[in-house]
Amino acid sequence: MTPTSKQALLNWFDVHQREMPWRLTKDPYAIWVSEMMLQQTQVVTATPYWQRWMERFPTVASLADAPLDDVLMHWQGLGYYARARNMHKAASVVLSDHAGVFPTSYDDLLALPGVGPYTAAAVSSISSNAHRAVVDANVIRVLCRHEGIEDNPKLPAVQVRLQTIADANLDEARPGDFNQAMMELGATLCTPKSPFCDRCPIGDDCIAKKTRMPERYPLPVEKPKAIRRTDVLIIALCDGMTYTHQLPQDGLWGGLYSFPRISVMDGESVIETVTRLAIDILGGENHQPVELGRIRHAVTIYNVELIAYIVNVTEFAADHHNWRSLSEIDTFPMPNPQAKLWAQHKHELLSGRLPVSQPALDL
């Protein structure tokens, strides 16, 4: 990238950058929170979460002192919950190893739980102008098009090449702004489909624009085909209480609370699965489950139809400490599909009315 193009990119960013609340501060903690949330999450989704998070955990000390359940509750709906668990751990590390002062150096950031090269480069460059180039999905697309790189960007050798190019292009005086400008360019103009090449500030020396084939770069990587799966869960009701359990910390929804849930096995009907789950968790056999509702959602490589059933029981069974008041369920962090399902039906359940089956809800 020529010096003229780099300056043109910064000039464009100064005028056209989107308003984001974390761009109004140089606080490395606040910037770190935003970068952790923006992994696998769009800006429009992350913004209200960031605002609520900063109200509840305005400092790294307040995050470290908070119960993990509270942290997960404020993360609920963002997915990839390992990010929140790692943030909670990282906050404790900052208190113990950095006297509560959030680090700004690349190496210190990289040593925190859950922080990789991209996040360390972003936080250090934006908060303290460290000379570290970021390479995320948006930057990869911009660089591949600008430099005419047709290779698979997921290959290690290509990743090294892209990082080398990004390092060489980084503006000496404004590395943080330059990093943000590259990401902003990829997010708003140099988009995966139908990019706005005619408005690009670095188009004068861009190979993809010259060849008029921007969608050729980078090499499309075929995604694995989604696998369909049906899961069932049961909301057991007994004297104003329901059964939930905390999921293992190392799982997909680690540390969250869940109603009993399993997948339908091959050759097994949905009602057979519900009966099996009810017997395993609650004991007995005469549960007479009533369908509550269905939600379709995606998780990793699966497209899941989640079917919820109400099961009325006459006495507490299984682990007594896992029975909780229906009025308390809102205070526990839950996987987003279950939280959505609960929000949709909690008023009728709290009032004791027999639920009526609802059409499937797509998330």
Which key phrases capture this entry?
2 domains; Nucleoside Triphosphate Pyrophosphohydrolase; elongated; 14 helices; 363 residues; two-stranded antiparallel sheet; alpha/beta; Endonuclease III, domain 1; five-stranded mixed beta sheet; 44% helix; disordered C terminus
Explain the overall architecture:
The protein has helices at 3-16, 28-38, 43-56, 60-65, 68-75, 82-97, 106-110, 117-128, 137-147, 156-169, 175-188, 207-211, 270-282, 336-351; strands at 227-237, 241-243, 245-246, 257-258, 261-263, 290-299, 302-312, 323-325, 361-362. It has 363 residues and is of the alpha/beta class. The protein has 2 domains: 3-216, Hypothetical protein, domain 2 (Endonuclease III, domain 1), CATH 1.10.340.30; 227-362, Alpha-Beta Complex (Nucleoside Triphosphate Pyrophosphohydrolase). The strands form 3 sheets. It has a 5-stranded mixed beta sheet with strand order 5-1-7-6-9, with helices on both faces. α2 (28-38) packs antiparallel against α8 (117-128), α8 (117-128) packs across α11 and α9 (137-147) crosses α11.
What's the short version?
The protein has 363 residues and is of the alpha/beta class. The chain has 14 helices and nine strands. The chain folds into two domains: 3-216, Hypothetical protein, domain 2 (Endonuclease III, domain 1, Orthogonal Bundle); 227-362, Nucleoside Triphosphate Pyrophosphohydrolase (Alpha-Beta Complex).
Could you give the topology of this structure?
Elements: H1 3-16, H2 28-38, H3 43-56, H4 60-65, H5 68-75, H6 82-97, H7 106-110, H8 117-128, H9 137-147, H10 156-169, H11 175-188, H12 207-211, E1 227-237, E2 241-243, E3 245-246, E4 257-258, E5 261-263, H13 270-282, E6 290-299, E7 302-312, E8 323-325, H14 336-351, E9 361-362
Parallel strand pairs: 1-7, 6-9
Antiparallel strand pairs: 1-5, 2-8, 3-4, 6-7
